[in-house]
Amino acid sequence: MKFWKDKKFLKSMLVVAIPIALQNLITSSLNMVDTLMISDLGRTSIAAVGLANQVFFFYMLITFGINSGSAIFISQYWGRRDIPNIKRVLGLAITLSTATGIIFTIAGLFFPEFLMRLFIKEPNVVKLGSEYLRIVSLSYIITAIGFSYSIALRSTGRPNVPMKVSAISFVTNTVFNYLLIFGKFGFPALGVKGAALGTLIARIVEIVFILYVVYSEVGPLSARPRELMDWDREFFGRYLRTVSPVIVNEGFWSLGQVLYSIAYASIGEEAAAAIQLTITIQNIFFVLIRGLANACAVMVGNKIGEGDKEESFNYAIKFMTMSTTLGLILGIIMATTPDLVLKIFRNLDPSLYDTVKILLIIMGSTFFIRGTNSTVIVGILRGGGDTKFSMFLEMGAVWLVGVPLAFLGAKILKWPVHYVVILVILEEVVKFAIGVPRVLSRKWMKDLT
User: What three-state secondary structure class fits 16?
Assistant: First the structure.
C-alpha cells in the first residue's frame, strides 16, 4: 500500500482516471436511462432493445480493439512527443473504424430481421428490435469516428474533452428519449423507435462537439487529411502487427459475448430481459474499474515510451492492487443492495425482479475477479505492448471455457439463467489464474517505438 504515499503516481493516475471514469459513468448512466425509460414499455421492449444493441456492442468492441490498439502507439509516441506519427496512427484508426462502420450500418439498415432472429425467435421481440436497429444503425459510422478522436485525446493527456462531450451527449439523448418514446410536448410517441432516434441525434451532437474542440486550436490531433493518410507500407505493417491481435481479441471476445446473449435468450424472453437489466446495472459499478484500466494503459505506455521499464512495472503492480481492492468493495455493495438498486425500475414483473436480484448477488460476489482482469488485460498487457498474449488469453478463456459452458447450461442442462451465469464466470477465473502471473513475470514490457 506504499503507493498511497506516491504523490506523483496518484496525481498522474487521478488526472487520467477520473475523467475517463466520469465519461464511463455518463455513458453507463445513459444506458441506464434508456433501459429505465424502456422498462415502462414492458419486458418485450427491454428484451428487444437489449438484443438489438448486441449488434452495436459487437461493432463497438471491434472498434474499441482498433482504437485501443492504436492508443498503445499514441501513448508511447506521446511519451516521446512524436506528433507526426500520432497523426498517422489516428488516421489509420479512423480509416479502419469507418470501414467497419460501413459494414455494420449496411447489415443493420437492410437486414435487421435476420440479425434479430439470430438471437431470438419470438415475433414481437424480433419486430420491435428490428425497428430499433434500422434507425440506430445510422449512428454507427459517426460513433466510430468520434470514438477514435476520444481515445486519442485520452492518450495525449486530454481526457477531460471526451468526458465533457459525453455529458452533452447524455443530456441530449435523455431529453430526446423522453420526448420521442412517450410523445411529450407535441412529439409523436414512437416507443423503441423514439429511443433509437434519441441515440442517433445524440451521436450527431457528440461528433460535432469533438471535431470542433480538436480543430478549433492547433494540437497533436488537429491533423489535415494529408497528415492522417501519410503512412507507407512499412508503417502500416508495423502498426498492423501490434494492433491486429487487439482487433482479433476484441472481435472474438465480443462475438463470444453475443453468443452468451443467444444462449441466455434461448432460455426465454424473461432471461434475455433479466440479463439486459443486470448488465446495465453492473456497468454503473464498473466505471471506476474502467477508469483505472484505461489510465493504466496510458501511464504504462508512456513510461515504456520514455524507456523507464522499471517504473512501468511498478505502475502495473500499483494499478493491479488498486483494481482488486476497488473490485472487492464495489462487489460487496452490488451483492448487498439489489433491492435498493431495483427500486428505480418501475413496472417490473415480480418474476423478472427476482431473477435480476439473484443475478446481481452473483455478479457482485465475483466482481473483484473481473475488475482485476480488466486492469491486467486492457491496462497492463496491452499498455505494455503484449497484445498477442492478451489476445490468446481472452480468446482462449471465452471460446474454450465460457461459450461451451453457456450452451451446455442453457441448451443441454436446461438450467435457469442464474446457474448458466455462474458457469460463464469460470471464464474470468481462468483469465485471473493466467493473467496475474504474466504481469509478475515482466515479459509483457515491449517498446514499440
Answer: helix
H/E element holding 286?
Answer: none
Q: What is the dihedral of CA 187, 188, 192, 194, to 10 degrees?
A: -30
Q: Comparing C-alpha atoms, which of 62, 51, 173 is closest to residue 112? A: 51
DSSP string covering 131-191: HHHHHHGGGHHHHHHHHHHHHHHHHTT-THHHHHHHHHHHHHHHHHHHHHHHT-TT----T
Chain centroid to CA 23: 12
Give pLDDT tens digits for 349-403.
889 899 999 999 999 999 999 999 999 998 899 888 888 898 889 889 999 999 9
d(CA 376, CA 178): 39
Supply 349's cell numbers: 414483473
CA distance 369 to 438: 16
| pLDDT of the residue at 388 | 85
Q: 188: which 3 cell numbers?
A: 409523436
Q: How far apart are CA 126 and CA 43, in angstroms?
A: 13
Q: What is the pLDDT of residue 59?
A: 87
Could you tell me the pTM of the whole model? Answer: 0.74
How far apart, in whole angstroms, are the C-alpha atoms of residue 447 and residue 449? 6
92 close to 236: Cβ distance less than 8 angstroms: yes
